[in-house]
Write a structure and sequence with these properties.
The chain has about 425 residues and is mainly alpha-helical. Helix content is about 55%, strand content about 5%. It has 18 helices and 5 strands. Strand 1 and strand 2 form a beta hairpin. Helix 6 packs across helix 13.
Length: about 425
């Protein structure tokens, strides 16, 4: 029913609003109050560099050159659209929903989930290498989105000083708790705030707000249908797969849904699932689908795994993506330790694109000091936390991992080509 969740929406009338709107530091004021706290978070996220780079990051098909194939940024916009539709109908806070949705993947690695697996494998090979603020021993993009929001991404204040995003608790919570890979018929928010860096596994903790729960579900609704459309565009779904897809529809949806292949697309899938979710959700039951639509969602995910995500062409490209990421990591690892000062410039002198980019990263996010006469810290007016210790190998390894995680597909490939070219 429309407006069912109005009483629990996260706004000034909610008993948990003070915690939800809490920031680690006081936010500067601009002399007006035309935006809500969550709306301010939204604009801070869309102005971050990590958000801008999403347009050249993989959603499913790696390093896409086809303008009509979904990238990570387009996926994020789809999630925002689906989330806001649900939140608006149910009576939830659309400002909070939009902020969580637009920022939920800012920590995603290049080359999609495979890139995430590559960085995780590198950390597992260096099992003792972690620092507290970087979020533990393993790499997973939900926690990395929180880490980037807290420590990496910046916006300029009214005086032109680069400062960290300093988002509200509810938005930060939504970033790390957005994992949509867990198959659940119904979800509800958890009751208490927690230390977000104490979360050790993706999907293990529900979001703190109903709005965060909406984004978690919308993430799955948005990607399944669009991934199917892109697979068709690349002609990787054969007639055997189409027959199985029609069988899934017939088995789970029956007469409610057309069985023609053309009708099973992102638009019809999103409409069917969103309308069903809105109809069956309540504060008492949680955000939930009917059993029939939930079965359809589950079977469609299995179909995509079998015929899209594990397709041999993607698997072949993943081998190349692994080589790209591992080569960049190994190259940068060779620059440690930093003695004498400026060794990064010396060791990378034949790779100017990598040298300049990585040195800028170090100046902004670590205790590294450039050997040159140009003081980037003062010139660029950074007021950011020094996250990484370049004199400590464990911290330096995490520094490399985070640097690579921020790359776009195209930039990672360009750096790889620079490294292997003579």
């Amino acid at each position: 029913m429309k407006g069912t969740f109005t009483a629990v929406r996260m706004d000034e009338n909610n008993k948990d609003y003070v915690q939800a709107a809490k920031r680690e530091h006081a936010l500067y004021e601009r002399g007006n109050t035309i935006r809500s706290e969550f709306d301010r978070d939204y604009t801070r996220l869309i102005n971050s560099l990590a958000f801008r780079r999403l347009k050249h990051k993989t959603q499913v098909f790696l390093a896409p050159t086809n303008d009509h194939v979904c990238t990570r940024m387009e996926h994020v916009i789809h999630v925002k659209s689906v989330s806001e539709t649900i939140a608006k109908y149910l009576g939830l806070n659309t400002d909070l929903t939009a902020a969580v949705a637009i920022g939920h993947d800012i920590g995603h690695a290049p080359f999609g989930h495979h890139g995430e697996d590559c960085l995780n494998a590198i950390l597992n090979d260096n099992k003792d290498n972690s620092i507290k603020t970087a979020g533990g021993k393993k790499f997973w993009h939900e926690r990395n989105s929180l880490f980037f929001a807290d420590y990496i991404e910046t916006v300029q204040d009214p005086n032109g000083i680069e400062r960290n995003l300093n988002l509200t608790y509810a938005v930060r919570d939504g970033l790390i708790c957005h994992c949509g890979e867990i198959d659940q018929l119904s979800i509800k928010p958890r009751a208490e705030p927690i230390d977000l860096y104490a979360i050790k596994q993706a999907g293990s903790v529900q979001p703190y707000t109903w709005e965060g729960c909406v984004v978690k579900i919308a993430d799955k609704i948005a990607y399944l249908g669009r991934d199917l459309e892109d697979a068709r565009r690349y002609h990787i779904i054969d007639m055997t797969a189409y027959r199985e897809l029609r069988e899934i529809v017939a088995k789970t949806l029956g007469a409610d849904f057309s069985s023609t292949a053309q009708a099973i697309n992102a638009s019809t899938i999103v409409n069917a699932l969103v309308s069903d979710l809105c109809e069956h959700s309540s504060v008492e039951a949680g955000l939930c689908f009917s059993q029939k639509k939930f079965d359809f969602l589950t079977e469609l995910k299995k179909f995509n795994i079998a015929y899209i995500y594990n397709h041999w062409r993607l698997v072949e490209f993943e081998k190349y993506a692994t080589l790209v990421i591992k080569t960049i990591f190994d190259m940068l690892l060779r620059t440690f330790p930093f003695a004498p000062s400026g060794k990064v410039g010396l060791c990378l002198k034949y790779f100017p694109q990598l040298r300049d980019s990585f040195e800028d990263w170090l100046v902004k996010h670590s205790n590294y000091e450039s050997a040159g006469t140009f003081d980037r810290t003062n010139a660029l007016h950074y007021d950011t936390v020094s996250v990484f210790d370049c004199t400590n190998e464990k911290s330096y390894i995490k520094c490399i991992i985070e640097y690579i995680s921020g790359m776009t597909d195209q930039f990672a490939i360009a750096i790889y080509n620079e490294i292997i070219s003579f």
